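#struct-queue
[09:14] JT: dropping the first one here, sequence first, then the C-alpha cells:
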Amino acid sequence: MQYRNFLAIHSIQDTIESLSPAVSMARHYGAHLEILVLNLASPVPTMTFIQNPDFDWSDSYSQVLGESRQRIEQVQRWLEDKGISSEVSSSCQQLGLVDDDVMQPALYADIVLFHKGSESMVSGMMSKALDGAVFDAARPALILPSGHAEPPASFKRIAIAWDPTPGAMHAISAGLLLLASASYVELAIVSREYDKRYHQDQTLKIRQWLNRHDIKAELTVVHQEDRLVSEVLLDYVNSADLDLMVMGAYGHSRFTERLFSGVSHQLLDKSDKALLLAH
C-alpha cells in the first residue's frame, strides 16, 4: 500500500509553518494533502440571551467565520509554491461537535496528521479532533511534536509498543511504509515477566509477520515491576533513542481513557516523541 491521501488538522492558533511536516509527507509520497483549519465557536450564551434579548450571538460567530476564511486564504497562498496537490477547508464548531466535523474528511485519509503545538492534545479542541479521527473514523493518526524535523526522512529509529490487540495491528499496518524505511525497529513489550525466551515465543507471530514485510524488529522487554504500564512506557519512550512510537490507542472507551489517564492519554500529554496511533 502507498500513501495517497493525507489529512492535516490545523488549529488556527498555530502558525502556518507548523504545516511544513505535512507538506513534507505529501511531497515525499506524491500524495494529496487536505488541510482542515479548526476554529472554535463559542457556545450560545443562554443566560445572556435571557437577560438581554437584544444580544446577537451571530456577530461572534461571524467573526470566527471571518478568521477562518482569512486563514484559508493565507494557507492557500503559502501552498502555491510547494509543488503538491492540496485543498484547504475549515470547521467552525462548538467544542462538542468538533469530532463530527473531523470524522467526515478523516474517513478518506490514509493517515491524519496532527501538530502538537499550542493546543493540548488531551483536552479541548484538538483532543476532540483526535477522537474524531482515531475513534469515530477509525483512521490512524500521526502526532508530531513542535520543532520536529521533516518526516518521513527523520523516522530512522522506530519502536512498536506491542500487545496482541486489533489497535496495535492497525497501527503497525498503517505505519508499514515508515517501518520499512527505518534503519532500526524495536518491538517493545511492557511486562513483569523477566524471561526473554518467554517473550520471544509470545511474539513469534508478529515478528514473522514483520519479516514477511522485510522489517526486522529487535525485541525489547521493558520491565513493569510495580508501576503502571502508562508510567513505564512513558519513561521508556522519553529516554530511548527513538524518533517515532507506533502503538494502539484507546484500549478502553474514550471516557475510561480520559478518566483513568490511560497509556495513549499519558503519551499524548507528556511525551516529546512523534506518535502513530490507531484504534
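[09:21] JT: and here's the second one, same format:
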Amino acid sequence: MKRFYNLEVHYKGQNYFGWQKQKDFKTIQGTLETTLKDLVGSDSIRTMGSSRTDTGVHSLANVCFVQIPCEFTPQQLKEKLNQLLPDEIHIERCERTYSHFKVIYFAKSKQYIYLFKNLPEDIESNYFTNIPEKLNIEKMKEATKSFIGVHDFTNFSYKPSKNAEKVREIFKCEIVESQDYIKGEDREDCYALVIEGSGFLKQMVRIIMGTLFNIGHGKVEIEDIEVSYDSSVFHKTGFITPGAGLYLNHIDFIRDPFKGHKVQE
C-alpha cells in the first residue's frame, strides 16, 4: 500500500540548515522525514519540497509531496505530525494527491518577502535584518522597477550551475513600508521587499536585496543593474544578505496541490 499527500509546511528556519536534507546537518526536510518514519514505523517514505530554502530562511508556503506506506485521513496525518514535529515546524494544510504530482514543476510562480529595518542601532533578530546606516529608501524603491521583466540573473546568483537555465521572469518587485504581511516578533514596522517571479536561482533574492542596500548607500547606481544582466561580464552589484529576513510567502501552482484525490483501492 502506498498513500500520497501534499503538505503545506510553515517553519521558522533559524535553527536549520535550510530545507533540503543533508548528512550530519539538521534540516527541515530531514526533520520531517525522521518524524514520518517514526510515525509510520517504516523507512519506506518519500518527500519532495517545492522550494529548497536556504539556511535560516522561513516559510509560510512551502508545499511538500509525501509518500507513506499506510493509510491516514488528511486530518489525521496533519494532527499527528503537528504533535510530533518541533515547535518551529507546523503543517498548515494536508490533502491527498496522486503518485506523480510534481511539486517543483507544477509551481508557476513564487513570492518571497525580505523584511528589514533601518534603525541607527545594533539589532539582532532571527526574523528581520537591521541596517544601521541610513538608507535612501526612495532610491531603493525606484531601483526595484529594474528587476521586473525577463532577465538573465547569472550575476544575481551564487555559483550557478553551468548548464542551469539562468533566465527568469520577475512579475512584481517593490518595497513596502510598515508591512503587514507578517506579524509578531517585532516585525510589524519593518520594510518589506516583495518579489514575485517564475522562479529563483540560488540566493537570488538575497543578492537582489543586497544590491538594493548598496543602492540605498550610494555604492551602486541603478544603471548598474542593467549592466549585470549581461552574463558574459562578471558584474556583481550586491552581497548575500542574511537568511533571517527572508520568507517564502506564497506559491501559485498550475494544478491545485490541495484539490484532493480519491483513493484507489
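[09:30] RK: nice, looked through the second one.
[09:31] RK: The chain has two domains: 3-105, 108-250.
[09:31] JT: good to know. The chain is about 20% helix and 30% strand.
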